[in-house]
Protein: TIR domain-containing protein
Amino acid sequence: MGSGTSSAMFLCFLHFFWIIVNPARAYSMKHCISIKMNLNCRQRNLQTIPSDIPPVIKSLDVSMNNISKIKKSDFKNISVINCMNLSSNTISNVEDGAFLHLVALHGLDLGHNKLTTISEHMFQGLANMTRLQLHNNLISFIACSSFQNLSGLQIVNLTNNKLHHLSNVQPLVHLPNLRELYISNNNLHYFESRELSNGSIGLKVLDVSTNPLERFSITANVLPNLQNLNLSYCGQNGSMEWDVADTVFLSKISTLDLSGVQMSVDNMSMVLQNFTNTHSSLASLALSNLWRKSTEKVGIIANIACHIPTLSVLRLGNDCISVVSEKLLQSCSRTKKLDLSDNIISDLSESSFRSLKGLKYIRLDNNSLSSVPNATRNLSTLKILDLSLNSIDNLNCLDFANLTGLLKLFLYSNKIQKLDSCVFQDLKSLKMLSLGGNSILTLNGAFTNCLQNLESLDLRQNKLSSIKQEDFKQLKSLKSLILFDNQISHMDNGAFDGLFNLETLKLSSNKINAKAVKDTVFRELSHLRYLSISSNRIEYEHDSELRLPPFVNLSSLRYLAIFSQNPQGMFNIPSNFLEGLQSLETIRAGNLNIKLLHPNTFRYTPELKYLDISDNKFTSLTAELFHPIPKLMVIYLSKCQLESLDFLINANLFQVNYLQISYNQLTALNETLLNSLPSLTYMDMRNNSFSCNCSNLWFMRWITNNSQTQVVDAHQYLCKYPFSQKGTLLLDFDTHSCSVDTGLFYFISTTSLVLLTLLGSLIYRLLRWQLIYSYHLFLAYLYDNKQKNRRAAYQYDAFVSYNTHDEPWVLRDLLPELEVRQGWRLCLHHRDFQPGKPIMENITDAIYGSHKTICVISRHYLESEWCSREIQVASFRLFDEQKDVLILVFLEEIPDQQLSPYHRMRRLLKKRTYLSWPRAGEHTGVFWQKLQLALETRNSSDEENPLLTGVERL
Ligand SMILES: *[C@@H]1O[C@H](CO)[C@@H](O)[C@H](O)[C@H]1NC(C)=O
Ligand SMILES: *[C@@H]1O[C@H](CO)[C@@H](O)[C@H](O)[C@H]1NC(C)=O
Ligand SMILES: *[C@@H]1O[C@H](CO)[C@@H](O)[C@H](O)[C@H]1NC(C)=O
Ligand SMILES: *[C@@H]1O[C@H](CO)[C@@H](O)[C@H](O)[C@H]1NC(C)=O
Ligand SMILES: *[C@@H]1O[C@H](CO)[C@@H](O)[C@H](O)[C@H]1NC(C)=O
Structure:
């Protein structure tokens, strides 16, 4: 019954670990993990109860922390909670009313703390509580009214405290529903029924064990319904006094543990004789560890015990027996279960159990037997025989003779080396055979002609090296075959043939290589649901298709484990390795040294829900890999050296709710990725290379603000980048530094304005000419564009662009020579521009209406006119029409460095031809000739330009 309670408690907290499949809605909390409304804050170095506990949860586990005080305000926001585990802290103080609002609480564990007293109002409000664990504290005082309103309380564990008097538990005993009370290992010297005053009607289980009781005295019927009494290891100095006034007082007791009680043989005999009367209900009696190694005394006691008419279970364990003779148990004819485990029995006479006519269950485990005793043969009523943990090295054909009714046989952890075909021949009903932990080398047909009803065969941890076709063939009922941790390297074709009902096959930790994993081995296992072949030597050189994929006939398989625990691994998974596994839901393929997965890998497993490929060497995976498995819910990808999860974006993983990606090199996750996992509720990203900067602002905010996905332990994540943030906490990153406030904005804009102005004037000073020039260039571009659309016929042969300073030369030298002597028609602005027309239009008309444009270049010209509209329009036309329109005439020598601001000029000079007006005193004839030639040239490209030759450079 005790174990029932603890298992209920265990189940209650088991919720916490139920994280593998389908974790539901979760919350983001600083210290806890929440799964399915169960909050786990275990081992977090907490000093206080976390303040961000959501109001509605099923359970809370804050065990293994450093909490020393429970404050009244700690749980005031929690309205609905069933279980609470506060154990293994240092709680010494619980404020009155701390649990006041927890009306739905059923289980509270305060074990392993430092409580010394239970005060009056400590448990106020816990009206619905049924289980209370207070074990391993320092409690010596319990206030009278402290349990007054806890009328629902059924189970209280006060084991390992400092109670000195039985009267301390009086406030508990009176509770109407109390069923189980554990006060083991306190400091009780007396058990006097009067200390319980009126006693307890409901109490069924009472554990008083390991107290230094000098006296066990019941003088009134205070525990009328007590069924289970544990007095083991009570008493001091061999002298516990037993004083039960009336056998009726203990008449309901069915289970009694008197192991290790300090009592003389005589006193013990008297105690047991008190149970031989007609009122007694005693069915199960433990008498272990009474008088070490004194088989004689044990024999006397056993004999009396076996005269108890109702007794069916007898335990005589813990080092007290070495030899069992017929005499020891001669009166135990009614015993159904005999527990002789944990002794040092090496010898059992053939007739030891002869008088136990109805024996169903014998435990002889953990003794010193070197062979299967003769005594256990021919027990036709026997159902369970446990011989495990002995030194049996050999099984003979008659060892299990006539055990035709036996259902379970345990032989694990012995020294059996070989089997024979005859060994199990009589075990016609056997359903379960456990032979693990021996040294069996070969099966020698031990399973060939018997065990038709065997459902479970456990051969783990032996030394089998091969599986032959005949080995298991006749085990038609077999559902589970466990062969892990052997040395199997070879499996015959059809090694498992005939096992049509087999559902579970465990072959991990053997020496099976890729050649041994073949379709012919598994061909008849169409009902197999669970297969593990992890940690073997299955390796593939590449991932190309296998000619004969191994699992094609395993159409019912739900679970496949191929992960490895050795560093070797599979290296590659052939693209059709999983072919045939149409029902597969879980695959565990971690630590296989795999770098790549072929996109077809999961093509054959459309039902896959749970995928573990963690601890591999992927640097990247593809979205295509996941397309055939849309039902995927759980992904394990930790320790995979991943720098990005972008491959999940188009993977269509709409059902995934659990993502384990710890120990990678991820810097952050982006919005697109997380949006592509719409069902995600649980994500573990511990130990990645988080980058704490503003570009991951969205991610950091998402971790804390999103209401769907719980990022496990996010508050412990450390930054790795940038260097300045290394080692700081990701969620401590100051996100405000990323958003600019208005003050800062104004500051920045004024500063920039000032800087720009400064820079602008600086630029203007340095690059004035280039700026003006660029401005005109732009205007010219606009006009040129406009001009393109309306091509006038040529009015002039040339338009002359010049500076007013050079007008004398134009009028005196140029005009007479070109117009009068050579007969060209020139356009001069002072003479030919139409008055009233905008100047720009006049210029463009002139340029586009002339075949050529002559630029008269001097220093003045460069300073004022070069940047003028004329030259720009002309040069645009030049590029636009690809015609040689520009004729450059240099009136004076201009050194290169003075030309430097005029990039365009320099470019033109490099590409174009130009003429220089001869220096004073030189002959002008050649100049005019060349000019004439230039004016005559029409539409010629550079290469053909005759002026290219015979022109001097500046
Ligand atoms: C009571 O506490 C003891 C000591 O920790 C433990 O061993 C035992 O299992 C507990 N019993 C129940 C019913 O919880
Ligand atoms: C708790 O107990 C009260 C009566 O004491 C009952 O009305 C209520 O329904 C119980 N609540 C739960 C959650 O069991
Ligand atoms: C218990 O047994 C002893 C010895 O057999 C006997 O003297 C005593 O009266 C018995 N007690 C009761 C309550 O029957
Ligand atoms: C088992 O019984 C046989 C006779 O049936 C006997 O020869 C043998 O010595 C016995 N073995 C042991 C270990 O008692
Ligand atoms: C098995 O039982 C039969 C009939 O009861 C008996 O003849 C035979 O000797 C027994 N076998 C052994 C090995 O004791």
Observations:
- The chain has a mean pLDDT of 84.
- The chain is about 20% helix and 15% strand.
- The longest helix spans residues 742-788.
